[in-house]
Specification:
heterodimer, A: 505 residues, alpha/beta, Rossmann fold, 6-stranded mixed sheet, 17 helices, B: mainly alpha, ABC transporter involved in vitamin B12 uptake, BtuC, 14 helices, 73% helix, binds adenosine-5'-triphosphate, binds magnesium ion
């Protein structure tokens, strides 16, 4: 096997944080090489080195036998490396086609050639099996669709450069599936395998070890910025990987069944134009209610209606014994908390310190007589870091400097600090490693068992099955069924979500 | 990156804050400028010149307080210069119509509040970009001032109205002390009050702020109202000093205030800035233009130099940001 890309003893520090601490890694032609590790292990930093976003402090980067020092992302692209970053980078105001072709827009006589831009986008989307109109504005897409467009953009770079000098031979995917449903995932896997058979080398980062085992040829485990080992995927199992990632065994939590308490919120025949219709359910103290459904089934709307950031057009929503006040602010006053699905644009203030983020939803808890108390803010930040195990050197560190998983922990900390009686959560563990996922799940369960009601919307079905006491399954905006969490199976939920009647279990 | 929010921290980590660094750098440059000028010109370090500099700074320093709050919230107000002019003509018109002084002042301040409210409502409720919204009200206020006065300055105001410019306290006129009070109150309020702390969150990310339960629109409207009110305060003080209402006053003041705030560490992208820094920016720019006057540099060159200072300050800002 010939190495297309190799890293030798690469180091990179950000202030006191050693993000990469002597990583060695090589990528062979035509292989899928998975990169796994805990949140903050240095995976994205490694990718950023390869993509020209970050310059290493020391170490060697060799591409095609030539030592390289990328100064910009453009250098990396011209060296044939196409990257899909963990944090998405699409421009909301532009169309899908414009975004896909942004790197190298087709032009004729100095003008953008719209026809070939359209054709290229259709082709890239087709490879992923996505049915989207290329002229649609990206700002209107669902999270999963955005993620696919992002991948399509990289695929376009590969096909647009095929046969040229700067031919893209390396595709990097940093957690590409964190927002995808099972069908979208398998379409993506097909595309990845097709590329591999054309000789493209692929780096694949994921916290879903089953995906890694299904897709990868080789696996490299990172821990604390260093390589633990690189091994063939054949014969590998998740436990071995987890042990290498965390340096110890991780216990699977055993959950007791509880009986739910009083009702705290209720949907009565609720409709929201075009999104959901005739939805009724009740939410009780002490329980976790999962909401499942395919993309476009309206599952997010259920959460957002309850949180008060979407408006219903019919029916009635009852919150804490009265009519829902219709805004998040007012709902918060009734004890509601809301964790949105996109931590980067909706959940967090990226340029602000961890401490400020931790208190953003509860400024009155750190102020007296209208004046802020700086010590209280810092303590609150430190408290959130400790309680959720956020990896950072100080609560003054800007959230943008944290790894994705650690950002997610801060987001949870921000809301759990308020101890909400009703917690509405979308995609609780998007981009979060196994250990942190378990932590977040434990926190959610503990919060429910302490008497709060939790409503979880997730595209990650195993997660819903593990967490939920009951699961409401939506199909085209209507509830297709509410199943008992502990006894439900993935198949049961999928059948309901697809609109079919499940066989009796 | 957001070094603008004050936390008690050990000095070393405090110095690492970009914002404090910026303020320190400005203080040093101001000191250097003063030292250099006192060597170059014997008239620089005199009480008379000091008074002239301070009095000249009053309108900008008052307006920059509102401008900084707006900048931190991620927007700005281009109408302040015109609102200043309009309030100065309104107060003069009313005084000439024999309205009692306090009532005339109150009416002028209401003009500022009204324009601020209008800006805030247009930006939040109609969703018009602050640039367009305040460019519009800027033109309306200026036009109104010219219509009321038919383009002339209104002088021979009652002598008692001159109190803000004439009363001297500890070597400075009353209007300078009002400026000091507004600046200190503004700085403390932006640093410490819960209400204005929300402004940093809104500037950091408006969506995330709304999803944290912050009443984004309400806060943004209040910011515009504060900005309008302060512009009219500056207008009244200016009218008192000049003993006339001038419809052409405050031309370009909005840009001066913006420039000073940015030099002082505020960012046009929002989320960053302090009033202390912005006022240091005002002092810095005022000193530079005073120095140039002392050295007999022509007005036209002064404009060029002021522009250069702004561009350089922003460029340095961008470069240091990219590194961090
Ligand atoms: N720009 C930065 N400034 C400061 N620290 C940083 C920066 N980028 C990354 N780090 C730190 O480097 C470490 C590695 O981060 P990285 O994003 O590479 O982790 P990761 O393995 O991708 O994690 P995740 O699975 O959560 O995405 C983390 O501790 C992170 O806080
Ligand atoms: Mg990462």
């Amino acid at each position: 096997m010939r190495a297309v890309v190799s890293l030798e003893d690469v180091r990179k520090s950000f202030g006191a944080t050693r993000a990469l601490d002597g990583v060695s890694f090589d990528l062979a032609e035509g292989e899928v090489h998975a990169l796994v590790g805990e949140n903050g292990a240095g995976k994205s930093t490694l990718i950023n080195v390869l993509a020209g976003v970050v310059r290493p402090d020391s170490g060697r980067l060799v591409v095609d036998g030539v030592r390289r020092d990328f100064q910009t992302t453009h250098d990396a692209k011209s060296a044939g490396i196409a990257t899909v970053f963990q944090e998405l980078s699409l421009v909301d105001g532009l169309s899908i086609a414009e975004n896909i072709c942004a790197g190298r827009p087709p032009s004729r006589f100095g003008l953008i050639d719209r026809r070939s831009q359209w054709a290229r986008s259709v082709e890239a989307l087709r490879m992923l099996g996505v049915q989207l109109q290329p002229e649609m504005t990206v700002g209107r897409l669902l999270a999963s669709q955005r993620q696919l467009v992002e991948v399509a953009k990289a695929l376009d770079q590969i096909s647009a450069t095929a046969g040229t000098e700067g031919r893209a031979r390396v595709l990097i995917l940093d957690e590409p599936t964190s927002a995808l449903n099972p069908d979208e995932k398998s379409a993506l896997f097909r595309a990845v395998r097709a590329l591999r058979s054309q000789g493209v080398a692929i780096i694949y980062i994921s916290h879903h070890l089953d995906e890694v085992l299904a897709l990868a040829d080789r696996i490299t485990v990172l821990r604390d910025g260093a390589t633990v080992w690189t091994r063939p995927a054949a014969g590998m199992d998740s436990d071995t990987m987890v042990r290498a990632m965390v340096g110890r065994d991780v216990q699977r939590a055993v959950r007791s069944r509880v009986s739910a308490g009083d009702e705290i919120a209720r949907f009565e025949d609720v409709g929201a134009r075009g999104r959901i219709e005739g939805v009724s359910f009740s939410l009780r103290r002490g329980e976790i209610l999962g909401v499942a459904g395919l993309d476009g089934s309206g599952r997010e709307s259920v959460a957002r209606l309850l949180a008060g950031i979407e408006r219903s057009t019919s029916g009635r929503i009852v919150l804490a014994g009265r009519d829902h006040p219709g805004s998040l602010r007012a709902a918060m006053a009734l004890g509601l908390g809301y964790v949105p699905d996109d931590r980067k644009t909706l959940g967090l203030f990226l340029d602000m310190p961890i401490a400020e983020n931790a208190v953003a939803a509860g400024l009155s808890s750190v102020s007296r007589l209208g004046l802020m108390n700086a010590d209280a803010i810092r303590l609150a930040g430190a408290g959130v870091m400790k309680r959720h195990g956020v990896k950072a050197d100080s609560p003054r560190r800007a959230v943008s400097a944290l790894s994705g998983g650690n950002q997610q922990k801060v987001l949870f900390g921000k809301w759990l600090r308020r101890d909400p009686a009703i917690l509405v959560v979308e995609e609780p563990t998007k981009g979060v490693d196994i250990g942190a996922k378990r932590d977040i799940h434990d926190q959610l369960v503990a919060h429910a068992r302490a008497g709060a009601a939790v409503l979880v919307v997730s595209s990650d079905l195993p997660e819903l099955l593990e967490l939920s006491d009951r699961i409401a399954v939506l199909h085209r905006g209507r509830i297709a069924g509410i199943v008992d969490g502990p006894t439900a199976t993935e198949e049961m939920v999928m059948t309901l979500a697809a609109g079919a009647t499940p066989r009796a279990a | 990156m957001t070094a603008t929010i004050d936390h008690p921290a050990p000095t070393s980590s405090r110095l690492r804050h970009l914002g404090s660094l910026r303020e320190l750098a400005l203080l040093l440059m101001i000191a250097a400028l003063i030292a250099g000028m006192s060597i170059l010109s014997p008239y620089f370090l005199t009480p008379a010149n000091f008074q002239a500099i301070v009095v000249g700074m009053v309108p900008t320093a008052i307006i920059v307080v509102g401008m900084t709050i707006l900048l931190v919230s991620g927007s700005f107000d281009l109408s302040v210069g015109s609102v200043l002019a309009l309030s100065s003509t309104v107060v003069a018109l009313l005084l000439l119509a024999k309205v009692p002084i306090p009532l005339a002042i109150l009416a002028a301040l209401l003009v500022g509040v009204g324009f601020g409210l209008a800006n805030g409502l247009i930006v939040t409720m109609l969703g018009v970009n602050p640039l367009i919204a305040t460019l519009g009200t800027m033109s309306i206020a200026r036009g109104a001032a010219l219509v009321f006065t038919e383009g002339f300055s209104l002088s021979s105001l009652p002598p008692a109205f001159g109190v803000f410019g004439k009363t001297q306290i500890l070597g400075l006129p009353l209007m300078a002390w009002i400026m000091v009070a507004i600046v200190i109150a503004g700085d403390v309020a932006l640093r410490r009050t819960r209400f204005l702390r929300q402004v940093y969150f809104i500037g950091g990310s408006e969506k995330a702020a709304a999803l944290s339960g912050i009443a984004v629109n309400r806060v943004r409207i209040v910011c515009f109202v504060v900005s309008g009110l302060l512009a009219s305060v500056a207008g009244v003080l200016l009218a008192s000093r000049l003993m006339s209402g001038t419809p052409t006053a405050g031309n370009g003041l909005e840009l001066q205030a913006l420039a000073a705030a940015v030099i002082g560490g505020a960012s046009l992208r929002g989320g960053e800035g302090t009033i202390f820094g912005a006022v240091l920016g005002v002092v810095f720019v005022a000193l530079i233009s005073n120095a140039m006057t002392m050295l007999a540099v022509s007005m036209y060159w002064q404009m060029i130099v002021t522009g250069l200072v702004l561009v350089i300050a922003v460029a340095v800002d961008m470069l240091t940001r990219r590194k961090s």
